[in-house]
Amino acid sequence: MEKIVIEGGFPLSGTISIGGAKNSAVALIPAALLADGVSTIKNVPNITDRDALFDIVKLLNCDIKQDGNVINIDTTNLKNVLINQELSVKLRASYYFMGVLLSKYKHVEIYFPGGCNIGTRPIDIHLKGFKALGAKVTKRKHKYTIDASNLVGTEIKLDFASVGATINIMFAAVYATGRTIIKNAAKEVEIINIMDFLNKMGAKIEGAGTDTIIIDGVTKLHGTEIEVIPDRIEAGTYMLAGALLGNNLKVTGIIPEHNKALLNKFDEMGVNYKLEGNSIILNKCENLVATDVTTEVYPGFPTDLGQPMSVLLTQANGTSSMTETIWENRKGHYPYLQKMGANINLENQTAIIKGKTILKGTEINATDLRGGAALILAALIATGKTTIYEIDYILRGYENIINKLSDVGAKIHLEQI
Ligand code: EPZ
Fold first, then answer.
1. 189 and 243 in one domain?
2. What spacing in Å lies between the alpha carbon of 306 and ligand 1's midpoint?
């Protein structure tokens, strides 16, 4: 077991390079199993969610070769076996094997997925989509068995623009007979990355990135290669670090368009930044202006940046608000920010944040992935020493976060507990 120890108040200078998007990679890895043969996925981030997926791919008797952030997956000897509960609960994205194995073998046995405790996290929209295609879902306690004699394309209107359900139904539809149209599809950019991978395999998909995705079923998919797009949430997290403590901090390897909602808020607050191609340079600003933030589906302000953003709001002059509309419980970090001295009042899904407050170092716990990232940002600006426990949450989604921050001047290190 380890904890993160941070001495706050040190400016951040130098360059942080952004890795591959976690929420793309965790769908691309299962997607590789749709193809017959070897697929190559480049720019895969070195995060524990990746390792959890590797365990499932190996359980299914596929061969994985890894060379740095390039992985090769060979499905030649794939065996469609039960994905046990221990592996299924390791991460939310295990549910992508439902769509993949149902699509290819018309049968899958898996347990309910895991993921950060940010809400009940149902999968009813996924299952409704599978049933619309002709599948039968049997649930015994937490184990799902999904079968179909045949999957037939149809029109499916999602009750909510769910990222996971959009992707999972795309997986289930690629081998279905005929055309599937997904209406009210999620528009997150990671879905375009997955569509590109499937189309390079020989699938016939169009419309990812819009609210209507059309999939014409095919009978064969071959191995191919794809590169994971940059992680817009990792990028946004380090951009917030630059807004808080930057001294010409450069965040590079980004796609600015993917962070438009955050940059719009930076403009409202008077954050000092300059865009240069696929990089952004940030400097700390003493007079940040308070603002109101509401998380929304893409291209709105991303729910995954709501918690890190709340730390910047504690440093703005005046009263700000952070309203979370996607998940019921992205509030785990607020009690710890209050313990550090932040002036925050919770009103249901809205946090009223009064700034500017001095934060003081203390002992705190990460409660989930993005809440943990928020606490790291808070510790970086706090006076004195902060110790953060339960850091496994953070290591699930932020590649080399300790080194990336210490390399630009943060006084941050890991200690054994
Ligand atoms: C993906 O989760 C991301 N995870 C989440 O990032 C992200 O917060 C979320 O999309 C929204 O952008 C991965 O991609 C692995 P949803 P997902 O289905 O697909 C409800 C992070 O920090 N819903 O879009 O699980 C659900 O309860 C993680 O990197 C249903 O009701 O999110 C939630 O309120 C956290 N029924 C809302 O929709 C369903 O069947 C959004 O869920 C599915 C979802």
1. no
2. 14
For residue 381, how many C-alpha atoms fall within 13 Å in the half-sphere facing its CB?
A: 28
Nearest to 155 by CA among 171, 132, 176: 132
Mutate to test the pocket of ligand 1, among 162, 167, 182, 367 (most ligand atoms within 8 A of CB): 162
CA within 13 Å, CB half, 58: 10
> Angle, nearest 10°, between helix axes 22-31 and 232-245?
170
Instruction: Give distance in angstroms: CA of 329 to centre of ligand 1.
Output: 12
Same domain, 52 and 183: yes
123 in the same domain as 238: no
Ligand 1 pocket: which residues have CB below 6 Å?
22-23, 26, 92-93, 116, 119, 121-126, 160, 162-165, 186, 188, 303-304, 326-327, 369-370, 397
**Co-location of 64 and 84 in the same domain:** yes
Same domain membership, residue 289 and residue 360: yes
Candidate of 116, 163, 401 to mutate for ligand 1, largest count of ligand atoms within 8 Å of Cβ: 163
Tens digits of pLDDT across the chain (417 residues): 899 999 999 999 999 999 999 999 999 999 999 999 999 999 999 998 999 999 999 999 999 999 999 999 999 999 999 999 999 988 889 999 999 999 999 999 999 988 888 888 899 999 999 999 999 999 998 899 999 999 999 999 999 999 999 999 999 999 999 999 999 999 999 999 999 999 999 999 999 999 999 999 999 999 999 999 999 999 999 999 999 999 999 999 999 999 999 999 999 999 999 999 999 999 999 899 999 999 999 999 999 999 999 999 999 999 999 999 999 999 999 999 999 999 999 999 999 999 999 999 999 999 999 999 999 999 999 999 999 999 999 998 999 999 999 999 999 999 998
- For ligand 1, atom 19, the nearest C-alpha belongs to 164
β-pair type (225-227, 38-42): parallel
What CATH number is given to the structural domain containing 152? 3.65.10.10
User: Catalytic annotation on 116?
Assistant: yes
The domain in which residue 356 lies consists of 2-19+230-416
Calculated CA dihedral for residues 118, 123, 129, 130, nearest 10 degrees = 140
One of 25, 28, 62, 116 is an active-site residue; which one?
116
Of 227, 255, 273, the position where a domain reaches its end is: 227
Same-domain pairing of 202 and 189: yes
Count of domains for the chain:
2
Domain boundary at 204, 227, 250, which? 227
Residues 216, 308 within the same domain? no
Q: Are residues 15 and 27 in the same domain?
A: no
Q: Are 158 and 137 in contact (CB under 8 A)?
A: no
Does the N-terminal peptide bond of residue 256 adopt cis geometry, omega within 30 degrees of 0?
Answer: no
